[in-house]
């Protein structure tokens, strides 16, 4: 430890209990971590030195970005067997290469700062999510974050061309290449993206940049159900050359919860009580506005949409987005019995939504449901809340039964039990139950090959390691 203190400098080791608190926090007040030591390297070589020292001493390492992940992935144990490695001092933008359309950043860069660095060169880095003011690019890649523009630009994995990674033995793999094509062997980069710090520590990345769309049309649409919303999406994409960047579904029940907590939310359709779709379409063609208007007029005629408002100003656009943002905010404040982030093929979204609505209501008739999310990506957030005025007890039989019902339904539709939030510690048991034994076995073999000592983010993603 003395060696690491000397290497990292006076601000590089945090062991004061008052200062350590924020490294043990959880974004929604869930189970806290118990780290007693946090190490804050400034450079890749320092990360490598820490990992080598931990490997020699058999100490577990919990990488931590902005600490906004939902599933306890960045949570350290209380027994002192693990330390937290925070990337927060590694926040340099190493290069912006306009000709290659890339930006190379260190893992501790805050997502909003990467967006701003791109914007300063009149480019777009399109990864965008509610926590963008505090999450780190390393955390985004480690969780393969999604967010609100996946439909057009893909998730974190799709936006990354190269990675620099420190392996569990302390060696550094420099894969910081800005190549759009590279078939020189196995795809090592994608092994680390989405691995939640269990295979190595991401220290830097080459990310893709895009032209900034000349204009963006934002509209809110009243629909009768998820099935019509999916049909509307297909119609919109066909008429706009797939220019939709987001397509968010907000059913009536979820909006009602949001209004309980944020009563002054906009009411785009007055007293009419529709499910809502919030969409944005971006591009540079001259007649984009007219094209979107025509697509929505067609949807009204075809009965896919009941009413439409196209945002006439940035203020109105913000008021539409506020409805969407208020839903998870309300769920967080009202408390949930279960909450899951799942995905199914687009063709199954309507079926799954209807099935969950019926079956969850029958199992927990007094509870309240919110099934909403990034519908364009087949990604639904499913939350069951206690009856109005009731409190949630997360660790009870009902919660397990409800979770089993949701996840079984998702898997029966050939979906995934985690669309964009990962597995962390909190969903590791469910992964064990719902991923095939062959896939789990392959994941364990990879983990053992890269991290035979099991020091990288222990207990996360995979349980039952030897
Ligand atoms: C208000 C709000 C809205 C959100 N919206 C979305 C959304 O729309 N879409 C979405 O996908 N997520 C969303 N999230 C979840 C969260 O923001 C993402 O999972 C984010 O990518 C986590 O980044 P982080 O830097 O906070 O990572 P952390 O929470 O610090 O860590 C997450 C995991 O990554 C590992 N890790 C972190 N950094 C590294 C690294 N450098 N190398 C290796 N492993 C590392 C950690 O060990 C942990 O397992 C939201 C969260 C909040 C609070």
Radius of gyration: 23 Å
| Biggest sheet layout | 5 strands, antiparallel
Which ranges are low-confidence, i.e. pLDDT below 50, for 5 or more consecutive residues? none
Shape: globular
Helix and strand content put the structural class at: alpha+beta
CATH architecture of the largest domain: 2-Layer Sandwich
Question: Alpha-carbon distance between the termini?
Answer: 28 Å
Distinct small molecules bound, one entry per kind: flavin-adenine dinucleotide
Strand order of the largest sheet: 5-6-10-8-9
Helix content: 25-40%
Q: If you consult CATH, what is the topology of the largest domain?
A: Uridine Diphospho-n-acetylenolpyruvylglucosamine Reductase, domain 3
Average pLDDT metric: 95
Domain module count: 4
GO molecular function: catalytic activity; FAD binding
Cofactor: FAD
Family: Belongs to the FAD-binding oxidoreductase/transferase type 4 family.
Pfam families: FAD-oxidase_C (PF02913), FAD_binding_4 (PF01565)
What does this structure look like?
Its cofactor is FAD. Keywords: FAD, Flavoprotein. It comes from Allomesorhizobium camelthorni. With 466 residues, this protein is of the alpha+beta class. The chain has four domains: 2-86, 2-Layer Sandwich (Uridine Diphospho-n-acetylenolpyruvylglucosamine Reductase, domain 2), CATH 3.30.43.10; 93-211, Uridine Diphospho-n-acetylenolpyruvylglucosamine Reductase, domain 3; 215-331, Alpha-Beta Plaits, CATH 3.30.70.2190; 336-449, Alpha-Beta Plaits (2-Layer Sandwich), CATH 3.30.70.2740. 34% of the residues lie in helices and 20% in strands. It is built from 15 helices and 18 strands. It has helices at 2-8, 17-20, 44-57, 111-119, 137-143, 150-153, 189-192, 226-239, 252-261, 288-301, 314-334, 349-363, 397-412, 428-434, 437-450, and strands at 13-14, 38-39, 60-64, 82-86, 93-97, 102-106, 123-124, 160-166, 172-175, 201-208, 210-211, 215-223, 244-250, 275-283, 307-310, 338-343, 368-372, 379-385. The strands form five sheets. The chain has a five-stranded antiparallel β-sheet with strand order 5-6-10-8-9. A four-stranded mixed β-sheet has the order 1-2-4-3. A hairpin with a 5-residue loop joins strand 8 (160-166) and strand 9 (172-175). Helix 8 runs antiparallel to helix 10, helix 8 (226-239) runs antiparallel to helix 12 and helix 12 runs antiparallel to helix 13. Flavin-adenine dinucleotide binds at residues 27, 62-70, 73-74, 87, 107, 129-131, 135-136, 138-140, 142-143, 145-147, 196-197, 201-202, 420-421, 424, 457, 460.
């Amino acid at each position: 430890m003395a060696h690491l203190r000397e290497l990292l400098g006076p601000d590089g080791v945090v062991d004061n209990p008052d200062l350590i608190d924020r490294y043990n926090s959880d974004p929604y007040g869930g189970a806290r971590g118990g780290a007693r030591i946090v190490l804050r390297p400034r450079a890749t070589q320092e990360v490598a030195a820490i990992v080598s020292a931990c490997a020699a001493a058999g100490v577990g390492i919990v990488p931590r970005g902005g600490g906004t992940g939902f599933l306890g992935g960045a949570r350290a144990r209380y027994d002192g067997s693990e330390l937290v490695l925070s990337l927060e001092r590694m926040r340099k933008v190493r290069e912006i290469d306009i000709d290659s359309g890339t930006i190379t950043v260190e893992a501790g860069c805050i997502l909003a700062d990467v967006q701003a660095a791109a914007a300063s060169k009149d480019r777009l880095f399109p990864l965008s999510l509610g926590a963008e003011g505090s999450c780190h690019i390393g955390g985004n890649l480690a969780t393969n974050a999604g967010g609100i523009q996946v439909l057009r630009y893909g998730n974190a994995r799709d936006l990354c061309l190269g990675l620099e990674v420190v392996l569990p033995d302390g060696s550094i793999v420099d894969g910081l290449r800005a190549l759009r094509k590279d078939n020189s062997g196995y795809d090592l980069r994608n092994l680390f993206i989405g691995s939640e710090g269990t295979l190595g520590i991401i220290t830097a990345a080459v990310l893709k940049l895009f032209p900034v769309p000349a204009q963006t049309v934002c509209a809110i649409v009243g629909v009768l159900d998820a099935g019509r919303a999916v049909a509307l999406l297909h119609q919109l994409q066909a008429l706009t050359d797939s220019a939709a960047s987001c397509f968010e579904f907000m059913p009536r029940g979820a909006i009602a919860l949001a209004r309980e907590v944020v009563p002054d939310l906009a009411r785009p359709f007055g007293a009419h009580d529709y499910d809502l779709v919030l969409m944005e379409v971006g591009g540079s063609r001259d007649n984009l506005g007219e094209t979107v208007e025509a697509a929505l007029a067609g949807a009204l005629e075809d009965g896919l949409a009941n009413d439409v408002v196209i945002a006439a100003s940035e203020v109105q656009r913000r008021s539409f987005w506020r409805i969407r943002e208020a839903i998870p905010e309300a769920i967080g404040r009202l408390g949930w019995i279960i909450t899951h982030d799942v995905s199914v093929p687009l063709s199954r979204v309507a079926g799954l939504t209807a099935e969950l609505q019926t079956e969850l209501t029958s199992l927990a008739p007094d509870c309240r449901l919110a099934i909403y999310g990034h519908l364009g990506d087949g990604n639904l957030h499913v939350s069951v809340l206690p009856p109005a005025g009731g409190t949630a007890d997360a660790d009870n039989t009902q919660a397990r039964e409800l979770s089993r019902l949701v996840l079984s339904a998702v898997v029966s539709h050939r979906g995934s039990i985690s669309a964009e939030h990962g597995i962390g510690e909190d969903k590791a048991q469910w992964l064990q139950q719902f991923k095939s034994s062959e896939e789990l076995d392959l994941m364990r073999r990879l983990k053992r090959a890269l991290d035979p000592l099991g020091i990288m983010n222990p207990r996360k993603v995979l349980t039952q390691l030897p």
